[in-house]
Design a protein that fits this description.
Elements lengths: L5 E5 L5 E4 L3 E2 H8 L9 E6 L3 E3 L4 E2 L3 E7 L3 H22 L4 E2 L9 E6 L6 H17 L4 E6 H10 L3 H9 L4 E7 L2 E4 L13 E11 L8 E10 L2 H16 L2 H7 L3 E3 L8 E3 L1 H20 L2 E3 L5 E3 H7 L1 H4 L8 E3 L2 E5 L4 H8 L11 E10 L15 E11 L1 H21 L5 E6 L9 H17 L4 E4 L9 E7 L5 E10 L1 H5 L4 E2 L5 E2 L2 E10 H12 L12 E5 L5 H13 L4 E3 L6 H10 L4 E5 L1 H6 L1 E6 L5 E5 H12 L11
Parallel strand pairs: 1-7, 17-21, 23-24, 30-31, 30-32
Antiparallel strand pairs: 1-2, 3-6, 4-5, 4-7, 8-9, 9-14, 10-11, 11-12, 13-14, 15-16, 18-20, 19-20, 21-22, 22-29, 23-25, 25-26, 26-29, 27-28, 32-33, 33-34
Helix pairs in contact: 2-3, 4-5, 7-15, 12-13
The chain binds one RNA strand through helix 5, strand 11, strand 13, strand 14 and helix 17.
RNA sequence: GCCUGGAUAGCUCAGAGGUAGAGCACCUCCUUGGUAAGGAGGUGGUCGUGGGUUCGAUUCCCACUCCAGGCUCCA
């Protein structure tokens, strides 16, 4: 194509290579391989810091090339994608009737969807995995080939691959690429590793149904999930991580620690907070209320139902109906259980004339809402049908928006830090295709949100077009103790509801102006956040949150009075403490306290009574330490102190 | 909602077309203990709900309810 001379720059060494003809990445690699520091296989390259390509890619002009090693995030992606092809080959060999869906790499592995007569059983997966190992071991080369679109359609039609044909028809390019290895052919954009032997350590994890293109009206395919790593150690680490996540499952811990339950008899997705869970919730609620009052929020309470007309005005009947419980007809009037708190807060705003002097006006409520989530998506405390949002609505002017958003972000960070969440993933979602309000006001609001994020010192990524129809939003995910990201905070700007409810305030020039509204929830919901906390702490709540902070164990009957005395004293000091004077051995009672994840166990025997000490066993610590009772009490009281939320204004 | 797999004692689970089992938990008694399960005995189940097949169903069939894992991270 291009017979001119050109140079290619290598990113890591800044070395420039003069070329007189187009070369593939593989050829380029061979020219410079001796100089590379990497002792790991190279599986691809990033061109001009943009396009990720494999070794088949032809370089036709000047560019900058960065080689991608197999263990880098890009390299893993390439390798996992190749692993999905190996999976597809194994499946087609073992089940010739299987038709191919798609098989991409994911963040943690890969999957491939197949149309098969019979879903895969665990034994099938074993067989498939075994065949995959053989294919990997044989080290078949991948080959890339391009085809004219028409040709490709014929090719895949002949093979009965109707899903592939559908994909090709939708592509705009005149040519498509296919990848082959050992006779297996798949439509694929690539990139791929040079040969199957590059897939070092992999495992199939599960199979499940998945609709073709996520559309429940179309074919149900069978998806096989797997993961792959560049070393067996990394694979093992990942599998251990999955085990660890299982151990932290809040549904299991919730029962074992007697925190909450969800009961068939009452209904799916409806949460019962047991005493031990309720204690934690109360601490969080009290802290939340206190810290909001300090920052100029007004606490309010609103009803759980309202006349359905209110939901027509708010637009929920048009936009949210399928998630709402059915209306309740009571004679002349029909009522609706609330799926959101906003219309209620608006009614309070509108209950009198507001002045610019009142703004920003902040209403906060731990508001319980009910949403009819589809049965298949319910999951422990994380996805439920009745939950309490830590909700607030701020009514304000455009000028006030930036600072208010910034303050909300600071408050969010302050709360999250207290629970040990230090890392955040922040997303700014911008104008979707369907939206209300003017494009200008959207652009401005997006700019303001971006400025607030930057001024508050948050790194964020933009999700273009992912905003809600009524305004742009910021979503925050927190990273837990084992690195999982959980969606919690959401901050949404709303141009729509102030319009629908015809809200206004008296401006300095005595004209009536329309306020803007912010919806925000920091924890999201108390149920969900509590579930996240259980997993984050693995049930080991810090002393200030622990349902039971101290358990007192008298060694034998004649020291019970002293143990009772100490228990009463700690209780009077405000601690959550229980006496376990049951007729069981010491070991037995210690074990139970340990499995109940109680932070402190104190044992009192004759020795301790004599010396005014307690034998302290700290959860997660090693061994027992005898210390004076006064010393112990002081230490625990210090740890039990409810932390304050620190935000920049107060520093 | 859809797919697959489930539902047996409070929990974890075994079981078979013919009167229902274990361990833990719980209760009682013995044991009075030094840091993760002392011993013995006992209570406890309409085998998820409703229907069908059968002389007989918890077991086989159907429907429903609920639970688990999934249901675009787009060749």
């Amino acid at each position: 194509m291009n017979s001119h001379h050109f140079t290619v720059k290598l990113k890591e060494s800044s070395q420039e290579i003069a070329l007189s003809r187009p070369v593939t990445v593989r050829e380029l690699l061979q020219m410079v391989v001796a100089q590379l520091k990497e002792n790991e296989p190279i599986v691809g390259a990033r061109v001009d810091s943009k396009e990720l390509v494999d070794l088949f890619h032809l370089i036709t002009g000047p560019c900058e090339v960065e080689f991608v090693t197999i263990s880098s995030p890009d390299g893993l992606r390439i390798m996992r994608h190749s692993a999905s092809h190996v999976l597809a080959q194994a499946v087609q060999e073992l089940y010739p009737d299987a038709r191919l869906g798609i098989g991409p790499a994911t963040e943690e592995g890969f999957y491939y969807d197949f149309l098969v007569a019979r879903p895969f059983s665990p034994e099938d997966l074993e067989k498939i995995e075994k065949r995959m190992h053989e294919i990997v071991k044989a080290d078949y080369s991948f080959e890339r080939q391009t085809m004219k679109k028409e040709e490709a359609i014929r090719f895949f039609e002949e093979r009965g691959e109707r899903f592939k044909v559908e994909i090709i028809r939708e592509l705009e390019d005149a040519e498509v690429s296919i990848y082959k290895h050992n006779g297996f052919v798949d439509l694929c954009r690539g990139p791929h590793v040079p040969s199957t032997g590059f897939i070092k350590a992999f495992k199939l994890l599960s199979s499940s149904g998945a609709y073709w293109r996520g559309d429940e009206k179309r074919d149900m395919l069978q998806r096989i999930y797997g993961t792959a790593f560049s070393t067996h150690e990394d694979l093992k680490k990942y599998l251990d991580f999955l085990e660890e996540a299982k151990r932290r499952d809040h549904r299991v811990l919730g029962r074992e620690l007697d925190l909450f339950s969800i009961q068939d008899e009452a209904g799916a997705g409806l949460v019962f907070w047991h005493p031990r869970g309720s204690v934690v919730r109360k601490i969080i609620e009290d802290l939340w209320k206190e810290e909001h009052i300090k920052r100029g929020y007004h606490l309010i309470y609103t009803p759980h139902i309202a006349r359905i007309d209110l939901w027509a005005t708010s637009g929920h009947l048009d936009y949210y109906r399928e998630n709402m419980f059915s209306p309740m007809e009571m004679g002349e009037v029909t009522y609706q259980l609330k799926p959101m708190n906003c219309p209620f807060h608006i009614l309070i705003y509108r209950s009198r004339v507001r002045s610019y002097r009142d703004l920003p006006l902040r209403f906060a409520e731990l508001g319980t809402v009910y949403r009819f989530e589809r049965s298949g998506v319910l999951h422990g405390l994380l996805r439920v049908r009745g939950f309490t949002q830590d909700d607030a609505h701020v009514f304000l002017t455009e000028d006030q928006l930036e600072k208010e958003i910034r303050d909300i972000l600071f408050l969010m960070k302050g709360f999250m830090n207290v629970f040990g969440f230090q890392e955040f993933e922040v997303y700014l979602s911008t104008r979707p295709s369907k939206f209300v309000g003017s494009p200008e006001s959207w652009d401005l609001a997006e700019k303001i949100l971006a400025a607030a994020l930057e001024n508050a010192g948050f790194k964020y990524s933009v999700d273009p077009g992912e905003g809600v129809f009524y305004g742009p939003k910021i979503d925050v995910k927190v990273k837990d103790a084992i690195g999982r990201a959980w969606q919690t905070t959401t901050i949404q700007v709303d141009f729509n509801l102030p319009e629908r409810f015809d809200l206004h305030y008296a401006a300095p020039d005595n004209t009536m102006k329309r306020p803007i509204m912010i919806h925000r929830a920091l924890f999201g919901s108390l149920e969900r956040f509590f579930g996240i906390l259980v997993e984050h702490y693995a049930g080991n709540f810090p002393v200030w949150l622990a349902p039971e902070q101290v358990r007192t164990i008298p060694l034998k009957d004649d020291v019970v009075p002293r143990a009772q005395e100490i228990t009463n004293d700690l209780k009077a000091a405000g601690l959550r403490v229980h006496l376990d004077a049951r007729n069981e051995t010491l070991s037995y009672r210690v074990r139970e306290a340990e499995t109940q994840k109680i932070p402190y166990v104190i044992v009192i025997g004759p020795r301790e009574v004599e010396s005014g000490t307690v034998a302290v066993r700290k959860k997660g610590g090693k061994g027992v330490e005898t210390q004076s009772y006064a010393e112990f009490k002081e230490k625990v009281l210090k740890e039990a102190k409810i932390p304050e939320i620190i935000t920049p204004q107060e520093q």
